[in-house]
Amino acid sequence: MKKLIPNKWDAKIDEITNDFQNSLGKLSSQEINWKPNASTWSIAENMDHIIKTNKSYFSIVDKAKTGSYKTSYLANFGWIVNLLGRVILKGVDPNRRKKTKTFKMWEPNEKKIFLSILDEFVDHQAELKQLINNSSDLISKETVIASPVNKHVVYKLETAFDIIVNHERRHYNQALEVLNEENFPT
After folding, report:
1. Where are the domains of the chain?
2. Do the Cβ atoms of 132 and 9 come closer than 8 Å?
């Protein structure tokens, strides 16, 4: 059994939460919902997407805790688990060299999102930290889960948490790109 390492995600989650609050917390409803074009998400849509994506993992972790979670047969092949984990983690690299399309279930709300999205995001971050902190036994057992959107894309829960944190940083960077657009309303 793998030795449990101290929670490496809390500080990163706190940093991302603080970055969102400090950089974007004083924006108006118009500013937080502004989009430079139809194919670019607003700042609010980035936050909504993060919340939706992260929450899709919550029921998986809950089922894994109760022992009722079942993965595909691919979870039995460590090399596949490790390979797919690395591929997904690389795909959410915060440097965002390439744009990627998200899955339908993770698309942000198409309607205007209210200023409360930042408060929802902060509350969600606390829930995420609690989920991670309550999962140390699953991490130490090297529990394997599947992506919420594809049961054949399997990786370790520890990798899932790395993916979540990198994905958050990626979308924070994307939100900053919107904030720094030349035509951003002020």
Report:
1. 10-18+40-179
2. yes
